[in-house]
Amino acid sequence: MILVSTLLFSACESIQYYGQAVSGQLYILTHRQTLAKLLSDPAVSPHLQEQLERISAIRTFAASQLQLPLESHYSTYVELGQPFVVWNVSAVPEFSLQPLTWCYPIAGCVSYRGYFNEAAAQEKASAMAIKGYDVYVGGVAAYSTLGWFSDPILSSIINRQEYELASLIFHELAHQVVYIAGETQFNESFATTVEREGVRRWLQNTRDSRTDTESLTTAVAESIRRQQQFVELVQKAAADLQYMYNSTLSLPEKRSAKNQRQQQMRSDYARLKVSWQGYNGYDKWFGGELNNAQLATVTTYNNLVPAFASMLDIASGDLPLFYKNVAALAQLNPAQRQEQLQELLLSDATKAQ
User: Fold this and answer.
1) Bridge partners of residue 109, in order along the sequence
2) Which candidate, 178, 149, 164, 159, places its Cα nearest to that of 75?
3) Each residue's pLDDT tens digit, 294-338
4) Cα dihedral angle (148, 112, 140, 166), rounded to 10 degrees?
5) Taking the model in full, what pTM does it have?
6) Are 233 and 299 in contact (CB under 8 A)?
7) What is the per-residue DSSP string for 52-99?
8) How far apart are the C-alpha atoms of 109 and 44, rounded to whole Å?
Protein backbone atom coordinates (compact mmCIF):
# COMPACT_ATOMS: atom_id res chain seq x y z
CA MET A 1 0.00 0.00 0.00
CA ILE A 2 2.87 2.39 0.82
CA LEU A 3 4.57 1.50 -2.47
CA VAL A 4 1.41 2.18 -4.46
CA SER A 5 0.93 5.53 -2.71
CA THR A 6 4.54 6.48 -3.44
CA LEU A 7 4.19 5.62 -7.10
CA LEU A 8 0.96 7.58 -7.38
CA PHE A 9 2.54 10.59 -5.65
CA SER A 10 5.56 10.45 -7.95
CA ALA A 11 3.32 10.21 -11.00
CA CYS A 12 1.19 13.15 -9.86
CA GLU A 13 4.28 15.21 -9.10
CA SER A 14 5.69 14.47 -12.57
CA ILE A 15 2.43 15.39 -14.28
CA GLN A 16 2.24 18.64 -12.32
CA TYR A 17 5.89 19.45 -12.99
CA TYR A 18 5.77 18.80 -16.72
CA GLY A 19 2.45 20.61 -16.93
CA GLN A 20 3.99 23.84 -15.64
CA ALA A 21 7.01 23.34 -17.90
CA VAL A 22 4.85 22.92 -21.01
CA SER A 23 2.68 25.88 -20.00
CA GLY A 24 5.73 28.09 -19.45
CA GLN A 25 7.34 27.17 -22.76
CA LEU A 26 4.06 27.64 -24.63
CA TYR A 27 3.76 31.15 -23.21
CA ILE A 28 7.17 31.99 -24.62
CA LEU A 29 6.40 30.45 -28.01
CA THR A 30 3.06 32.27 -28.38
CA HIS A 31 4.29 35.69 -27.23
CA ARG A 32 7.29 36.10 -29.55
CA GLN A 33 7.57 39.28 -31.58
CA THR A 34 10.12 39.64 -34.37
CA LEU A 35 12.97 42.10 -34.04
CA ALA A 36 12.16 43.49 -37.47
CA LYS A 37 8.64 44.37 -36.36
CA LEU A 38 9.71 45.90 -33.06
CA LEU A 39 12.49 47.94 -34.63
CA SER A 40 10.04 49.53 -37.06
CA ASP A 41 7.26 50.12 -34.53
CA PRO A 42 7.17 53.78 -33.34
CA ALA A 43 5.28 52.69 -30.21
CA VAL A 44 8.28 50.71 -28.97
CA SER A 45 10.47 52.64 -26.53
CA PRO A 46 13.79 54.00 -27.85
CA HIS A 47 15.61 52.11 -25.09
CA LEU A 48 14.17 48.74 -26.12
CA GLN A 49 14.89 49.43 -29.79
CA GLU A 50 18.46 50.41 -28.97
CA GLN A 51 18.99 47.19 -26.98
CA LEU A 52 17.47 45.08 -29.75
CA GLU A 53 19.75 46.72 -32.31
CA ARG A 54 22.74 45.83 -30.12
CA ILE A 55 21.57 42.24 -29.87
CA SER A 56 21.15 42.11 -33.64
CA ALA A 57 24.80 43.13 -34.02
CA ILE A 58 25.85 40.54 -31.42
CA ARG A 59 23.95 37.85 -33.37
CA THR A 60 25.85 38.74 -36.52
CA PHE A 61 29.16 38.61 -34.65
CA ALA A 62 28.33 35.22 -33.09
CA ALA A 63 27.74 33.68 -36.50
CA SER A 64 30.47 35.37 -38.52
CA GLN A 65 33.31 35.58 -35.98
CA LEU A 66 32.61 32.73 -33.55
CA GLN A 67 31.04 30.27 -36.00
CA LEU A 68 28.19 29.62 -33.59
CA PRO A 69 24.97 28.06 -34.98
CA LEU A 70 22.77 31.15 -35.12
CA GLU A 71 19.88 30.11 -37.42
CA SER A 72 16.81 32.05 -36.17
CA HIS A 73 17.81 32.18 -32.52
CA TYR A 74 17.44 35.57 -30.79
CA SER A 75 15.54 37.04 -33.71
CA THR A 76 12.38 37.45 -31.61
CA TYR A 77 11.53 39.12 -28.30
CA VAL A 78 9.24 38.09 -25.41
CA GLU A 79 8.01 40.30 -22.59
CA LEU A 80 7.79 38.09 -19.49
CA GLY A 81 6.44 40.45 -16.87
CA GLN A 82 8.77 38.94 -14.25
CA PRO A 83 12.49 39.28 -13.43
CA PHE A 84 13.45 35.72 -14.43
CA VAL A 85 12.17 33.19 -16.92
CA VAL A 86 12.67 30.21 -14.59
CA TRP A 87 13.89 29.50 -11.08
CA ASN A 88 16.22 26.53 -10.62
CA VAL A 89 16.18 24.45 -7.47
CA SER A 90 19.48 22.78 -6.54
CA ALA A 91 19.78 20.21 -3.75
CA VAL A 92 22.95 18.71 -2.28
CA PRO A 93 23.43 16.35 0.70
CA GLU A 94 24.51 17.95 3.97
CA PHE A 95 28.05 16.59 3.76
CA SER A 96 28.73 16.50 0.03
CA LEU A 97 29.22 18.81 -2.93
CA GLN A 98 27.70 16.38 -5.42
CA PRO A 99 24.31 17.80 -6.50
CA LEU A 100 21.19 15.71 -6.68
CA THR A 101 20.16 15.20 -10.32
CA TRP A 102 16.80 15.10 -12.07
CA CYS A 103 16.39 13.41 -15.44
CA TYR A 104 14.44 14.73 -18.41
CA PRO A 105 13.59 13.29 -21.86
CA ILE A 106 15.78 15.72 -23.85
CA ALA A 107 18.36 17.30 -21.55
CA GLY A 108 19.21 14.07 -19.72
CA CYS A 109 20.07 14.23 -16.02
CA VAL A 110 20.93 17.71 -14.77
CA SER A 111 21.75 19.13 -11.35
CA TYR A 112 18.67 21.33 -10.98
CA ARG A 113 14.89 21.37 -11.20
CA GLY A 114 13.52 24.34 -13.13
CA TYR A 115 10.20 26.09 -12.50
CA PHE A 116 8.52 28.89 -14.43
CA ASN A 117 6.93 30.05 -11.17
CA GLU A 118 9.02 31.19 -8.20
CA ALA A 119 6.50 30.05 -5.61
CA ALA A 120 6.56 26.52 -7.05
CA ALA A 121 10.37 26.54 -6.93
CA GLN A 122 10.37 27.65 -3.30
CA GLU A 123 7.83 24.95 -2.45
CA LYS A 124 10.07 22.29 -4.01
CA ALA A 125 13.10 23.69 -2.18
CA SER A 126 11.24 23.55 1.14
CA ALA A 127 10.29 19.93 0.51
CA MET A 128 13.93 19.03 -0.23
CA ALA A 129 15.13 20.91 2.86
CA ILE A 130 12.74 18.90 5.03
CA LYS A 131 14.46 15.78 3.69
CA GLY A 132 17.77 17.11 4.98
CA TYR A 133 19.29 18.50 1.79
CA ASP A 134 21.11 21.81 1.45
CA VAL A 135 18.99 23.72 -1.08
CA TYR A 136 19.41 26.81 -3.24
CA VAL A 137 16.91 28.60 -5.49
CA GLY A 138 18.43 30.74 -8.22
CA GLY A 139 16.65 32.86 -10.80
CA VAL A 140 17.62 32.19 -14.43
CA ALA A 141 17.43 34.98 -17.00
CA ALA A 142 17.69 32.78 -20.11
CA TYR A 143 18.14 29.19 -21.19
CA SER A 144 18.73 27.15 -24.33
CA THR A 145 16.17 24.73 -25.78
CA LEU A 146 19.08 22.93 -27.51
CA GLY A 147 17.71 23.67 -30.96
CA TRP A 148 14.20 22.32 -30.41
CA PHE A 149 12.83 25.85 -30.70
CA SER A 150 14.20 29.20 -31.84
CA ASP A 151 15.31 30.78 -28.58
CA PRO A 152 14.03 34.35 -28.15
CA ILE A 153 15.42 37.42 -26.44
CA LEU A 154 13.68 37.67 -23.08
CA SER A 155 12.77 40.81 -21.16
CA SER A 156 14.70 39.32 -18.22
CA ILE A 157 17.99 40.16 -19.98
CA ILE A 158 17.10 43.24 -21.99
CA ASN A 159 18.47 45.85 -19.57
CA ARG A 160 21.94 44.33 -19.32
CA GLN A 161 25.02 46.08 -20.58
CA GLU A 162 26.10 45.25 -24.11
CA TYR A 163 29.01 42.99 -23.17
CA GLU A 164 26.73 41.13 -20.72
CA LEU A 165 24.23 40.52 -23.52
CA ALA A 166 27.05 39.21 -25.67
CA SER A 167 28.24 36.91 -22.87
CA LEU A 168 24.82 35.37 -22.41
CA ILE A 169 24.10 34.88 -26.11
CA PHE A 170 27.52 33.31 -26.78
CA HIS A 171 27.06 30.99 -23.78
CA GLU A 172 23.60 29.77 -24.77
CA LEU A 173 24.52 29.30 -28.44
CA ALA A 174 27.53 27.22 -27.36
CA HIS A 175 25.16 24.60 -25.96
CA GLN A 176 24.07 23.91 -29.52
CA VAL A 177 27.63 23.21 -30.62
CA VAL A 178 28.31 20.41 -28.13
CA TYR A 179 25.98 19.07 -25.46
CA ILE A 180 26.15 15.78 -23.55
CA ALA A 181 22.89 14.75 -21.93
CA GLY A 182 23.43 14.38 -18.20
CA GLU A 183 26.88 16.05 -18.10
CA THR A 184 26.05 19.44 -16.57
CA GLN A 185 29.59 20.36 -15.54
CA PHE A 186 31.00 19.49 -18.98
CA ASN A 187 28.27 21.41 -20.80
CA GLU A 188 28.39 24.53 -18.65
CA SER A 189 32.18 24.73 -18.44
CA PHE A 190 32.45 24.40 -22.23
CA ALA A 191 29.82 27.11 -22.76
CA THR A 192 31.56 29.36 -20.23
CA THR A 193 34.83 28.94 -22.13
CA VAL A 194 33.17 29.89 -25.42
CA GLU A 195 31.47 32.82 -23.69
CA ARG A 196 34.75 34.21 -22.34
CA GLU A 197 36.61 33.78 -25.62
CA GLY A 198 33.68 35.27 -27.50
CA VAL A 199 33.61 38.35 -25.28
CA ARG A 200 37.37 38.76 -25.65
CA ARG A 201 37.01 38.76 -29.45
CA TRP A 202 33.89 40.89 -29.38
CA LEU A 203 35.72 43.44 -27.26
CA GLN A 204 38.61 43.49 -29.74
CA ASN A 205 36.13 44.04 -32.56
CA THR A 206 34.43 46.81 -30.59
CA ARG A 207 37.78 48.46 -29.94
CA ASP A 208 38.40 48.58 -33.67
CA SER A 209 35.01 50.05 -34.52
CA ARG A 210 34.43 52.63 -31.78
CA THR A 211 36.13 55.71 -30.42
CA ASP A 212 34.88 55.33 -26.82
CA THR A 213 36.35 51.92 -26.17
CA GLU A 214 38.91 52.65 -23.48
CA SER A 215 36.38 52.92 -20.65
CA LEU A 216 34.46 49.91 -21.95
CA THR A 217 37.61 47.80 -22.18
CA THR A 218 38.55 48.75 -18.63
CA ALA A 219 35.05 48.00 -17.30
CA VAL A 220 34.90 44.58 -18.95
CA ALA A 221 38.40 43.63 -17.80
CA GLU A 222 37.52 44.67 -14.25
CA SER A 223 34.27 42.69 -14.34
CA ILE A 224 36.08 39.58 -15.55
CA ARG A 225 38.75 40.02 -12.88
CA ARG A 226 36.15 40.29 -10.11
CA GLN A 227 34.27 37.28 -11.44
CA GLN A 228 37.42 35.17 -11.51
CA GLN A 229 38.33 36.21 -7.96
CA PHE A 230 34.83 35.30 -6.81
CA VAL A 231 35.02 31.89 -8.50
CA GLU A 232 38.44 31.17 -7.00
CA LEU A 233 37.18 32.09 -3.54
CA VAL A 234 34.25 29.68 -3.89
CA GLN A 235 36.38 26.91 -5.40
CA LYS A 236 38.84 27.14 -2.50
CA ALA A 237 36.02 26.89 0.03
CA ALA A 238 34.47 23.97 -1.85
CA ALA A 239 37.80 22.11 -1.90
CA ASP A 240 38.27 22.66 1.83
CA LEU A 241 34.73 21.48 2.58
CA GLN A 242 35.07 18.39 0.39
CA TYR A 243 38.28 17.44 2.19
CA MET A 244 36.51 17.83 5.53
CA TYR A 245 33.44 15.86 4.38
CA ASN A 246 35.72 12.97 3.41
CA SER A 247 37.42 13.00 6.82
CA THR A 248 36.72 10.81 9.83
CA LEU A 249 35.23 13.65 11.88
CA SER A 250 31.97 12.92 13.65
CA LEU A 251 28.75 14.42 12.24
CA PRO A 252 28.58 17.14 14.95
CA GLU A 253 32.23 17.98 14.28
CA LYS A 254 31.55 18.20 10.55
CA ARG A 255 28.58 20.52 11.13
CA SER A 256 30.73 22.78 13.28
CA ALA A 257 33.59 22.78 10.75
CA LYS A 258 31.16 23.45 7.92
CA ASN A 259 29.73 26.47 9.73
CA GLN A 260 33.21 27.80 10.46
CA ARG A 261 34.25 27.49 6.79
CA GLN A 262 31.09 29.28 5.70
CA GLN A 263 31.89 32.14 8.06
CA GLN A 264 35.45 32.22 6.75
CA MET A 265 34.03 32.63 3.24
CA ARG A 266 32.20 35.75 4.36
CA SER A 267 35.36 37.14 5.90
CA ASP A 268 37.36 36.33 2.76
CA TYR A 269 34.73 38.09 0.66
CA ALA A 270 34.80 41.16 2.90
CA ARG A 271 38.57 41.40 2.44
CA LEU A 272 38.25 40.88 -1.31
CA LYS A 273 35.71 43.69 -1.62
CA VAL A 274 38.22 46.17 -0.24
CA SER A 275 40.08 45.91 -3.56
CA TRP A 276 36.86 46.33 -5.53
CA GLN A 277 36.39 50.00 -4.67
CA GLY A 278 32.82 49.71 -3.51
CA TYR A 279 31.54 47.15 -6.03
CA ASN A 280 28.89 45.04 -4.28
CA GLY A 281 27.57 42.83 -7.08
CA TYR A 282 28.05 39.63 -5.07
CA ASP A 283 26.57 40.89 -1.80
CA LYS A 284 23.23 39.20 -2.42
CA TRP A 285 24.93 35.88 -3.13
CA PHE A 286 26.90 36.08 0.12
CA GLY A 287 23.78 37.15 1.97
CA GLY A 288 22.47 33.60 1.66
CA GLU A 289 23.29 30.54 3.71
CA LEU A 290 26.40 29.65 1.68
CA ASN A 291 25.43 25.98 1.79
CA ASN A 292 26.63 23.12 -0.39
CA ALA A 293 23.94 23.65 -3.02
CA GLN A 294 24.86 27.30 -3.43
CA LEU A 295 28.56 26.50 -3.81
CA ALA A 296 27.81 23.72 -6.29
CA THR A 297 26.06 26.13 -8.67
CA VAL A 298 29.36 28.02 -9.04
CA THR A 299 31.69 25.02 -9.33
CA THR A 300 29.42 23.39 -11.92
CA TYR A 301 29.89 26.30 -14.31
CA ASN A 302 33.61 26.78 -13.77
CA ASN A 303 35.56 23.73 -12.58
CA LEU A 304 36.38 22.41 -16.07
CA VAL A 305 36.94 25.80 -17.71
CA PRO A 306 40.77 25.53 -17.45
CA ALA A 307 40.62 22.20 -19.30
CA PHE A 308 38.61 23.67 -22.18
CA ALA A 309 40.82 26.77 -22.20
CA SER A 310 43.80 24.44 -22.68
CA MET A 311 42.01 22.77 -25.58
CA LEU A 312 41.45 26.18 -27.16
CA ASP A 313 45.17 26.95 -26.76
CA ILE A 314 46.08 23.59 -28.32
CA ALA A 315 43.86 24.53 -31.28
CA SER A 316 45.78 27.86 -31.50
CA GLY A 317 42.51 29.75 -31.09
CA ASP A 318 40.96 28.11 -34.17
CA LEU A 319 37.34 27.90 -33.02
CA PRO A 320 36.06 25.37 -35.61
CA LEU A 321 38.98 23.08 -34.72
CA PHE A 322 38.30 23.63 -31.01
CA TYR A 323 34.64 22.74 -31.48
CA LYS A 324 35.63 19.64 -33.45
CA ASN A 325 38.03 18.50 -30.72
CA VAL A 326 35.45 19.07 -27.98
CA ALA A 327 32.87 17.13 -30.01
CA ALA A 328 35.37 14.25 -30.30
CA LEU A 329 35.92 14.40 -26.54
CA ALA A 330 32.16 14.21 -26.04
CA GLN A 331 32.04 10.97 -28.04
CA LEU A 332 34.33 9.16 -25.59
CA ASN A 333 32.90 7.04 -22.83
CA PRO A 334 32.62 8.87 -19.47
CA ALA A 335 35.76 7.29 -17.97
CA GLN A 336 37.93 8.15 -20.99
CA ARG A 337 36.49 11.68 -21.17
CA GLN A 338 37.13 12.29 -17.47
CA GLU A 339 40.69 11.01 -17.80
CA GLN A 340 41.46 13.40 -20.64
CA LEU A 341 39.86 16.33 -18.81
CA GLN A 342 41.90 15.61 -15.70
CA GLU A 343 45.09 15.48 -17.78
CA LEU A 344 44.22 18.88 -19.22
CA LEU A 345 43.52 20.29 -15.75
CA LEU A 346 46.82 18.92 -14.46
CA SER A 347 48.65 20.42 -17.42
CA ASP A 348 47.02 23.80 -16.79
CA ALA A 349 47.92 23.67 -13.09
CA THR A 350 51.54 22.82 -13.98
CA LYS A 351 51.79 25.81 -16.34
CA ALA A 352 50.42 28.10 -13.65
CA GLN A 353 53.17 27.16 -11.21
Assistant:
1) 103
2) 149
3) 999 998 888 899 999 999 999 999 999 999 999 999 999 999 999
4) -60
5) 0.85
6) no
7) HHHHHHHHHHHHHTS----TTTTSEEE--SSS-SEEEEEEE-TT----
8) 40
